[in-house]
Amino acid sequence: MTDLIFAGNWKMHHGPTAARALIDAFLSSYEPYDDREVWFFPPAVSLTEVTRAIRGQTGLRSGAQNVYWEEKGAFTGESSVSMVRDAGAHVALVGHSERRHVFGETDTQTAKKVAAVLEGGLRPVLCVGELLEEREAGHTEAVVLRQLAAALAGVTGNSWGRIVVAYEPVWAIGTGKHATPADAAAVHHTIRDWCAQQGAPSRMPILYGGSVKPANVEELVAEEEIDGVLVGGASIDVESWRAITKVGLD
Ligand code: PGA
Question: Ligand 1 mean position to 138 CA, how many Å?
Fold first, then answer.
């Protein structure tokens, strides 16, 4: 069985001091379980602190919310893959909907980031998902497949084994409205089929994201197609994050 992945995207919350406090509180009742991993995506300034705090703990990983594809140079405000790896990241989000829709990131830029993350030895978590009007127009699959095809065009051979995809319908992010488990599973199935045709392992992890919380996580991860969750708002509070990451253990 594939491990369940619980990924917490803190977005622009928790500088180093608050990050340390959250991790310490989380660790006070953390026990590793064979069937799951917990990944933390703090803001870049808190990455080193989170990495230090989880060092030596089985089942925990830190990751970057964003990277730039160049190695170094005059790119004010950006972090390269080697820099976030040096700060302890094992994984990096790429193409999050806020990167696409708030910061105007294109499919082409997303593809460059996926390539840089793979080249730098990290695992990309490629985020894809449709807008509400695209869903209502019946274009969900077409949008998701376009985003996948663009971002993963350069992926070959063994690199497929390091890809993680997160399906995050844009209308569900931060809105309190989540996709039904069946709707999410149907899109996951489409993603899995397409990626397998390109060379991905059939058990490539596909996470669902968008208003995941303690009250709905159980029904989501009960779906065979859903290999874990990418959580924003409910990951920045230690109680809800603990409840989410312990789903099914009682
Ligand atoms: P949300 O965010 O859980 O607050 O909806 C999810 C995400 O943006 O990854």
Answer: 23
